[in-house]
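Budget justification, computational time. The allocation requested in the original proposal was used primarily to generate structure tokens for proteins on the priority list. As evidence of use, we reproduce two of the resulting records. The first is shown immediately below.
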Amino acid sequence: MSGPDALYVYALLPDPGPAPAPLGAGIEDSPLHFCRDEAGGLAALVHHAEAQPYEGADDAVRRWIAAHDRAVEAAWRAAGSVLPMTFNVLVPAGVGGDGEDQSAEERLRSWLVSHREDLTSRLSALHGLAEYRVEITLDNTEALAEDGRARELAAQMESSPPGLRRLLGKRLEGLRRESAESFADRLYAATRRRLTAVAEDLLERRRSVRNAEETDVLTVALLVRESEVDSLGLVLAELDEEYPALRVRFLGPWPPYSFTEVQPGAERAAENAS
């Protein structure tokens, strides 16, 4: 097996200066260090790695991703601003722009220098901001309880013979879905508008896990300034109080994973490994 000839990149951040103590460990307890553009005040949090992606069983990948996220979050909390990398971003040794062979450190440092203005601007804009995830769904049963047609149909079922009751039950199930979807559509614009008012940016996302008893209203990533976090909590509390059928899930704070797309010095190794 070849020795380490690449850098695994966790995040880009303002250069914190000389580290007075070891930075800790990343994936598989790999020692972390900074690759710096000293003149521009930028740094990349990295560890030495082989030029191939981390691949393995699901449990191993989850463990590696958790270690990656811990390193990114530690850098973010220390620096106040960070451009986090996704899992498996590697910068290998290779040929530089001048046609000469370069180490991974030289390639990454050269990339930091050439993108200095853009990276510095983005890090400055993200200072004091955090990502939050909000999922808002509608409890189908509670939404149905507010529908007068459903109440009439349920009352009719009570006095109906078994055969008709089954038929009415199917009709009630269809009405449940129709009522929940209609209610969710009406709530979507209102909830999105209220969340946008307390966020610097908003990106819609797909829910990773769905519940058959719930209808999606809105799933978003929010970029929120520290001074607005209480306002965000107030908006969510008001929605929860105004609409008892809503189910609100609130996660964070995290580094701004959803609002940064940076590819330092090379394509993602996972997309280029042979």
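The second record produced under the same allocation is shown here.
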Amino acid sequence: MVTASYRNKWNGPFHYHSHQDYEIYFFHAGDCRYLIHNQIYDLEPGDILVMDGLTLHKPNVSPTSEYVRSVIQFSPHWIKGVLIEMGGMYLLETFQTLHNCLIRTNENEESKELEKVFCRLAELHRTAEFPDIQAETEMKVLLLQALISVHKLGRMNSIEIPHEKEDKAVHAENIADYIQNHFMNKLTLQSIADNLNVSRSYVAQVFKTMTGYTVMEYVMECRLTQAKYLLEMEPLKPLKDVSFESGFESATHFSRYFREKTGVTAKEYRQIRLKNR
């Protein structure tokens, strides 16, 4: 299925999250620094983020500025049949190969056309709670238009890879990268600091400043994301093994934390995900 929101003004709270769907994120206004996996992007109006969803991501928004963005989330399986029929599977390549990227449009004409698609899709999604075949067909046509537009923008503006970053951003990215590669092990602020050759206090301060989250909050979100992946992709794996392989200190801690963050038990989450396949 597909969901869409247009020019949403959101004041938080903002959490690290991941999801099964692909996402097209359109930034309109505000002061936002976006963390995706181990990359930090300082967003400008007109910027588009393309994400596969499974990658952990979160906006860090200034509390003193307005934050306006539009979002389309969709299941690739929902649109796959149409793309195959039209020879358009290449439109999903960015999601599948890069997993996430930034396209800097500078609010050009093509981005304005894309914004119209966001607007109509969000309106349709809001009014058609249980879409009939006509509404679903229009949603697929609009999503196809959005994917074509994003593909054009990517070719016109090229994928933006920030180079000259301030030291704080580089250090925060290094911290995120280290955590992504070691979250299954026992981690502390001191062990991260020792491995990155910086002070414990600097690790805590720079990561909080650049991402809006503490280091240990990020560690736990990485572990939760891994647990969700294992629960779905390895349905026969015992929960205690899922807990251990995701880096949780005990099965009890895993069960408590998982339910607190998702609202369901790990067993219930697995059943829901397998049923929706």
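A brief technical remark on that second record: The longest strand covers residues 2-9.
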